Amino acid sequence: MSRQLRLGAFMRPTTIHTGAWRYPGAYPDANFNFAHLKRFAQTLERGRFDAFFMADHLAVLNMPLDALKHSHTVTSFEPLTLLPALAAVTERLGLIATASTTFDAPYHVARRFASLDHISGGRAGWNLVTTSNPDAALNFGLDEHVEHDERYRRAREFFDVVTGLWDSWADDAFIRDTETGTFFDPEKLHVLNYKSENFSVRGPLNIARPVQGWPVIVQAGSSEAGRQIAAETAEVVFTAQTLLADGKRFYADVKGRMEKLGRARDHMKILPAAFVVVGDTLEEALETRARLDTFVHYESGIASLSIALGHDVSGFDPDGPLPEIPETNASRTARQRVVEWAQRDGLTIRQLAQRIGGYSGLEMVGTAKMIADQMEQWLVEDGSDGFNVMFPYLPGGLDDFVEKVIPELQKRGLFRREYEGATLRENLGLPRPENRFFARVN
Amino acid sequence: MSRQLRLGAFMRPTTIHTGAWRYPGAYPDANFNFAHLKRFAQTLERGRFDAFFMADHLAVLNMPLDALKHSHTVTSFEPLTLLPALAAVTERLGLIATASTTFDAPYHVARRFASLDHISGGRAGWNLVTTSNPDAALNFGLDEHVEHDERYRRAREFFDVVTGLWDSWADDAFIRDTETGTFFDPEKLHVLNYKSENFSVRGPLNIARPVQGWPVIVQAGSSEAGRQIAAETAEVVFTAQTLLADGKRFYADVKGRMEKLGRARDHMKILPAAFVVVGDTLEEALETRARLDTFVHYESGIASLSIALGHDVSGFDPDGPLPEIPETNASRTARQRVVEWAQRDGLTIRQLAQRIGGYSGLEMVGTAKMIADQMEQWLVEDGSDGFNVMFPYLPGGLDDFVEKVIPELQKRGLFRREYEGATLRENLGLPRPENRFFARVN
């Protein structure tokens, strides 16, 4: 069998495109309606997706109200309360929740993911993030946000504490012998006693070892510190490379770091975000894509465009072309990409603003065959191990993907027809971690 | 219609009796098996229970390992991950989760309960507790536990911050006008900006106002500070009075405090814990009760008995009667109750240890008619507004209650045949809180 694509669905909890809720046939309240989310999760499972991946924010997005008021992602469910509910209405779909190491306690985080893993029969994943948003800090009693390196040091330790707590009990600690009345074997209980400058956590965890040993560890950092912590600890990496060449560089770098640390390359799946718009013809797909952007409010779009260019462009003629913009200290790559788009597709400032304001990362727009070609190329050329797919609008964009792209990938032998296993780990082909305190039982 | 009983099911997440898991026909792993819990919740809903009530601990129970190893409650699900999963498989049952104000952040707690309330369509309740367990403190970086009054001051403020965050958005803030692209009305968003010695929380919450306005506020404190905070804020009070006379005193005291604060007596339901063993005859019920105690391990029982008496009784003959015990500084009420039980029922030390080690609060043992009589008496004499029922073992004890006691209560007009409303508040007959920052929309 050829190498297999891994597909996560990046739901936040619905789609990332800021105009999606206005698209004809979309559910404007999808972001906050459990019945809809249940339907989406069940569709993903029918499509044999590896996982439902949920982002998180610990504050209302930091944006002027006049731009923010157009956003459907301003409020949404909390991931660790939504995913258990989705666990109860699905059977095989993985459930990856984002939880921050910056403003929470390791004991709480360890418990919640262990609990989700038991409830779902081994389908939990933890997207371990640090929180840089200064507005989030203000919701947790801090006037200043925590500095980058300090956040990463804390995150690395947080990981050690959480995984140590997950290992509190041997896998076979619970005997439940009704005859003798012995519920567990005290020899198979470990007290962590972790102490450092950042954390003092005694343990043990009051939850049995997770079904998967540990829930799958997911990360998204792309900085030097982020790549290193991923190489040390991550099993799935969510990335944002827009070009295959960049993807290949990132892939080689992080997998290389893993090997240096003695980890097998296969034990991490690198999954870039991909915004996928499928049509029966290329023209239909391009039309959907363009139409979607018309639903991005100009005020939101122009703010995003100004940020991307590092230059206030709100004074220019919305229906004219993008003039020469002086060099600024904005990211050159981002700036260059915007300028290239404007030239290639002959976009007006309004169209450019709406595109940037809607979504501006890697996108695949075309027929199922074209999309499968593109995905296959990334896989074959070691640009990624699969993708975190984002849908243009719900439910239509998701239904189209499952009905059109998935069968094409299956036909090529690139994607499963049935789930391989019962747990997220088994489906992703990841090993079950040994308990560091207790040898495996044979 | 006569005054109605309110019935919660006190699940932790199963039963409190420490011998329950060994009872013939019981599920030894019920405490940690989602399929079982789903069945229990659906049975409770069929019985028209008001709510599934889930306790919580932030540490492995503080008990010597030799006693602890017999306990089925040593590990269990985390409430705020279990209850969303149960929400997805039930339609009307209330879902009350315990969450501590001592070791968590108000922003997290506000989000999770708001999220549960949306997921469940308005069925969430928050059992607001303070955590005194010193072992819990050690899991959250504190070497000493937080002192009682300080815990209550923090809890009171925690409540203000959480409810303030729930009121971040007016009920009609989300317009979702696809035509104009306005998702919400910025005039209907309130930034809390709470600042005190204990908390600094900016807000707004990134979740829409809960379906119920606020999830139902539940409390269990019985100290002076606990009663006062309950009178100020609680809508359901979980109590542990064993005798009707004590129940009546507590009821009069707390409802009196409410009235002094200008709150209507009806806006709080006082529900003592009641351990209910039902049989087709009294003899059968008594036999079940006695048999259940035989499954309590002697080592656990004798430790609990020694604590209740304030005297180490582990050296006495297990099969002899309880000798005279010198006065100690243990609680006199608890001590006296134990001595009375021993005399009344002619119990040996072993039997007494197993009873105390199994469960030692208010119990109702008998036929459905006898149990209904007892419940009715508490209700009519203002000893309570109903009960938090605890089942002797699962699933049998729960099935018996729903099949035998519920119909008897319904026949007397004391308990609903159908749910009155869609939300927990509606079913409990509690008013929906006004948003303190936005006038109600008419």
What's the structural blueprint in terms of helices and strands?
2 copies of one chain form a homodimer.
Chain A: E1 6-11, H1 34-46, E2 51-54, H2 65-68, H3 79-87, E3 94-100, H4 106-119, E4 124-129, H5 134-139, H6 148-166, E5 174-177, E6 182-184, E7 194-195, E8 200-201, E9 216-219, H7 224-233, E10 236-239, H8 244-260, E11 269-278, H9 282-294, H10 298-309, H11 332-345, H12 349-358, E12 363-366, H13 368-380, E13 386-390, H14 396-411, H15 424-428
Parallel strand pairs in A: 1-2, 1-13, 2-3, 3-4, 4-9, 9-10, 10-11, 11-12, 11-13
Antiparallel strand pairs in A: 5-6, 7-8
Descriptive overview:
The structure is a homodimer. The first copy, chain A, has 2 domains: about 5-280 and about 365-430, Luciferase-like domain (TIM Barrel); about 285-360, no CATH class. Chain A is about 40% helix and about 15% strand. Chain A contains 15 helices and 13 strands. In chain A, the strands form 3 sheets. An 8-stranded parallel beta barrel of chain A has the order 1-2-3-4-9-10-11-13, surrounded by 7 helices. In chain A, strands 5-6 form a two-stranded antiparallel sheet. The radius of gyration of chain A is 23 Å and the shape is globular. The two termini of chain A are about 30 Å apart. Chains A and B meet through helix 2, helix 3, helix 4, helix 5 and strand 6 of A and helix 2, helix 3, helix 4, helix 5 and strand 6 of B. Chains A, B: It comes from Paraburkholderia nemoris. Chains A, B: Belongs to the NtaA/SnaA/DszA monooxygenase family. Chains A, B: InterPro entries: Diverse_substr_monoxygenases, Luciferase-like_dom, Luciferase-like_sf, NTA_MOA.
